[in-house]
């Protein structure tokens, strides 16, 4: 590729990187995006991401602008209520239950849920046809040298290109972040999470459920029917040793433990996909920018999977970055504007979710009582309920305006 043949180079063609590429191309930038992996053939493929994402309303607005929502929406299941349950002991016993509904915010749904492997597949296909996007899968970022006016990027296949801005959207072990010399803060909990899809006897009625117990939260998120049976996506957090034990169980024993952990809210449950296991951490980058370089999504922040904050926070990064770019997309003024806009929100959400995760996983009696009483208070006091729900939605500012080019 000739020098300056691309305006913006993005390392990482996960969901966040592809949404950013499409949005920037719609704004008129020439974008090159690469990733060493390729989309999975299906949910059973090795390495497929069996988590799901509830795309909240502000994120859907960004996807619509990028002309991607029309591709994702056929696979999306509406999230019409959030049921929060507290429990103690084993088998767990319910101690509190409250349901939050989107009509408190004037919405018909909090968001729409899509399996991550399916979204990855769908977005890859859309980007192959997107004007202004050069999508290179099977090729990764190797190194870069940043100058005052440009960055020289070397790819894993040995090719080199020049860009005015390099974006790290390449995950928690971001090669771009490392090349830029940006360190991270990391908080470990000794927890892991299981991600998978299951079927169940009772319909989910488009309700997502968060169930707290010692070890962490279990989250069920509604999916379309699986082979004619009601289905949900599950993220089950627990202490690392317990997750290892669960992952080694035979299917019948695992299904029995799953049904118990979910407090039988949807009747008997059966795992419908392989299990994926990953560690739970809170990780934040110590800086969001360097010369001709910017970080978004999990290159900038990794959060425990609570309250649909992870990818929705990443899409807020994407929207803000697109608004902050100037005529020269790598100009320090625009990158500084992005960092100012996102740093406080990123650190605030990381701190809040860190504290919430510690509260949710505690097995101490006084803490469990506080957790149950707090849930009741948040739900039963209407102004507080709306404020918490708005914070969870992470609504993008209504006065977003694109910077002049």
How would you characterize this protein structure?
- This protein is of the alpha+beta class and 405 residues long.
- It folds into two domains: 6-75 and 114-186 and 282-363, FAD/NAD(P)-binding domain, CATH 3.50.50; 77-112 and 191-279, 2-Layer Sandwich (D-Amino Acid Oxidase, Chain A, domain 2).
- It has eleven helices and 20 strands.
- It has helices spanning 15-26, 57-65, 69-72, 116-128, 175-179, 240-247, 251-261, 310-324, 332-361, 365-380, 382-393; strands at 6-11, 31-35, 52-56, 77-79, 81-88, 93-100, 111-115, 133-137, 141-146, 151-155, 160-168, 184-200, 207-213, 216-226, 229-239, 269-271, 276-285, 289-290, 293-295, 301-302.
- The strands form three sheets. Strands 5, 6, 12, 13, 14, 15, 16, 17 and 20 form a nine-stranded mixed β-sheet that branches.
- α1 runs parallel beside α4 and α1 packs parallel to α8.
- The radius of gyration is 21 Å and the shape is globular.
- The two termini are 24 Å apart.
- Residues 395-405 have low confidence and may be disordered.
- This is 2-octaprenyl-3-methyl-6-methoxy-1,4-benzoquinol hydroxylase.
- Keywords: FAD, Flavoprotein, Monooxygenase, Oxidoreductase.
- Pathway: Cofactor biosynthesis; ubiquinone biosynthesis.
- Residues 5-342 form the FAD-binding domain.
- InterPro entries: FAD-bd, FAD/NAD-bd_sf, UbiH/COQ6, UbiH/COQ6_monooxygenase.
């Amino acid at each position: 590729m000739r020098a300056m043949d691309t305006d913006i180079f993005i390392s990482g063609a996960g969901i966040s990187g592809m949404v950013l590429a499409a949005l920037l191309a719609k704004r008129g930038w020439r974008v090159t995006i690469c990733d060493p992996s390729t989309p999975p053939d299906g949910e059973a493929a090795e390495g497929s991401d069996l988590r799901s994402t509830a795309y909240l309303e502000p994120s859907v607005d960004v996807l619509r602008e990028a002309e991607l929502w029309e591709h994702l929406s056929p696979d999306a299941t509406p999230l019409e209520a959030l049921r929060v349950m507290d429990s103690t002991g084993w088998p767990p016993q319910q101690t509190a239950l409250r349901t939050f509904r989107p009509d408190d915010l004037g919405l018909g749904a909090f968001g729409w849920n899509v399996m991550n492997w399916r979204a990855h597949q769908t977005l890859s296909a859309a980007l192959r046809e997107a004007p202004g996007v050069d999508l290179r899968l099977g090729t990764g970022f190797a190194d870069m040298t940043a100058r005052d006016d440009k960055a020289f990027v070397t790819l894993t296949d040995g090719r080199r290109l020049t860009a005015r801005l390099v974006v790290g959207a390449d995950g928690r072990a971001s090669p771009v972040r490392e090349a830029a010399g940006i360190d991270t803060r990391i908080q470990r909990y000794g927890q892991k999470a299981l991600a998978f899809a299951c079927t169940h006897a009772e319909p989910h009625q488009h309700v997502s459920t968060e169930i707290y117990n010692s070890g962490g939260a279990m989250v069920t998120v509604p999916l379309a029917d699986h082979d004619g049976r009601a289905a949900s996506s599950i993220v089950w957090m627990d202490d690392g040793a317990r997750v290892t034990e669960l992952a080694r169980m035979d299917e019948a024993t695992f299904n029995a433990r799953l049904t118990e952990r979910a407090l039988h809210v949807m009747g008997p449950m059966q795992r419908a996909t392989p299990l994926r296991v990953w560690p739970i951490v809170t990780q934040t980058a110590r800086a969001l920018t360097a010369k001709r370089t910017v970080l978004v999504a999990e290159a900038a922040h990794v959060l425990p999977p609570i309250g649909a904050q992870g990818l929705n926070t990443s899409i807020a990064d994407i929207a803000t970055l697109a608004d902050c770019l100037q005529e020269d997309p790598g100009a320090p003024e625009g990158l500084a504007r992005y960092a100012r806009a996102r740093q406080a929100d990123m650190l605030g959400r990381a701190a809040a979710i860190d504290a919430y995760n510690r509260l949710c996983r505690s097995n101490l009696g006084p803490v469990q009582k506080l957790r149950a009483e707090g849930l009741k208070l948040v739900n039963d006091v209407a102004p507080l309920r709306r404020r918490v729900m708005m914070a969870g939605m992470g609504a993008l500012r209504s006065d977003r305006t694109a910077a002049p080019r």
